[in-house]
Amino acid sequence: MTRLQRAVENATCQVCIIGQGYVGLSVAAAAAVAGMRVDGVDRDAERVKALAEGHNVVPGVADSLVSLAIDTGRLHFGTDAGVAAGADVVIICVPTPLVEHRPDLSAIESAGRELAAVLKPGSLVILESTTYPGTTESVLRPILESGGRRCGRDFLLAYSPERIDPGNVKFGLRNTPRVVGGVTPEATEIAATFYRHIVDQVETLSTCRAAEMAKLLENTFRMVNIALVNELAMLCASQGIDVWEVVRAAGTKPFGFMPFYPGPGVGGHCIPLDPTYLSWQSRRDTGRRFHLVELAQDINEQMPTYVADRVVEALNDQGKTVKGARILALGVTYKPNVGDMRESASLQVLSALHKRGARITFHDPYVASITVNDVRLRRSALTDRALSGADCVLLLTPHAAYEPGMLVERAQLLFDAQNAVPSRDQPSVVRL
């Protein structure tokens, strides 16, 4: 057994995690609680300062986990990736956004260059950032080897995609299985050993590429099925059929069906973006379009405008026009009970209504301010007066703070884009 294997097996290894967003901080805290010494590195000096002072400023990470980790005395924060020189295990958890529909790997490349200069011989590097198949071996590996060390001889390299779902109270880091694929079998096994300290189940794969593809399949599967039910919702509305009743009925079949639900669009860092990695790679490497994925993306991108159109229709049915209409939007984050605004479809809905002349205010317990079409919208209190004074209360994100009964009772017109209101017979309620 090598020194690295012993250190990882015994949870005595020194760990450096580059990137302290909701992914990196979660892993850093869990590793510290498991007994490892951890350095969390991030370029955001204000974030690092707050974390070092014991303040969790990262949405989606439990305060209790961060506090517990800091109390161990084994978790430290800084902005200098040079601390990786002393690490046995280095984990890269940096953003991989899209720029003009192409993967932007600049953060991975930058982290790789910093590591290449200081990488400790005999260490293990793990990439967690979501990316297209081949990134670990074809992009990160050459950069790490540019410092003169060779993968498989001087250091090990593996890929294990993050699977954190912010706001999910049922599945967290510990009870969500991990997949791991290494450049070599040794890398796979040692990386799996590391993760077994912080998650209950680890699935080892034959290659990094398989692990990279698995992550994209997970999110593409969800995006495509959401598109299917979104298009079904549009058809059902034209036929006077309750799409929510249809999905609920289909869900009673105990095999061959998994329920997905319509909404104003898809949001967050993963679902709207990850399928584009596959489309881009298919075009680049095979010259072929990824037809199903691209069609599904088109459907989901239509939903904010469709929801805005339905709101306009609902106002017209009450003898009102959208121009000058007072619309109170409830919930603007991309999903319930989190403060994450990334790729939120709610903002696109509000943009479409604002362009048509609606006077929009908003309420969200997790968001202090939003800007739509370069205009900062007024944040409203959730009061009886605000609800009853609006021409339309538009429920976009059903946070737990919103009591459906109160909304139905107070609103002149309630447009429910998420099936959050149970009553089916209220004339003042319109559903997607």
Provide a descriptive summary of the structure in words:
With about 425 residues, the chain is of the alpha/beta class. The model has no long low-confidence stretch (mean pLDDT about 95). It has 2 domains: about 5-205, 3-Layer(aba) Sandwich (Rossmann fold); about 240-430, Rossmann fold (3-Layer(aba) Sandwich). The protein has an 8-stranded mixed sheet with strand order 3-2-1-4-7-8-9-10, sandwiched between helices. Strands 15-12-11-16-17-18 form a 6-stranded parallel sheet. It has helices at about 5-10, 20-35, 45-50, 65-70, 105-115, 135-145, 185-195, 210-240, 245-250, 275-285, 290-315, 345-355, 385-390, 405-410; strands at about 15-20, 35-40, 75-80, 90, 100, 100-105, 125, 155-160, 180, 200-205, 325-330, 360-365, 370, 375, 380, 390-395, 415, 430.
Brief digest:
The chain has helices at 3-9, 22-33, 45-52, 63-71, 106-116, 135-145, 185-196, 208-239, 243-250, 274-286, 291-317, 345-355, 384-389, 404-410; strands spanning 14-18, 37-41, 75-78, 89-92, 98-99, 102-103, 123-127, 155-159, 178-182, 202-204, 326-330, 359-363, 371-372, 375-376, 378-379, 392-395, 414-416, 429-431.
Looking at this protein, list some descriptive labels.
432 residues, alpha/beta, Rossmann fold, 6-stranded parallel β-sheet, 14 helices, 40% helix
Q: What's the CATH topology label of the largest domain?
A: Rossmann fold
Shape: elongated
Intertermini distance: 60 Å
Mean model confidence by pLDDT: 95
The CATH architecture designation of the largest domain is 3-Layer(aba) Sandwich
Percentage of residues in DSSP E strands: 15-25%
The name of the CATH superfamily of the largest domain reads: NAD(P)-binding Rossmann-like Domain
Largest sheet: 8 strands, mixed
Q: How many helices does DSSP assign?
A: 14
Q: What top-tier CATH class of the largest domain fits best?
A: Alpha Beta
Strand order of the largest sheet: 3-2-1-4-7-8-9-10
Whole-number count of domains:
2
Q: What structural category characterises the helix and strand content?
A: alpha/beta
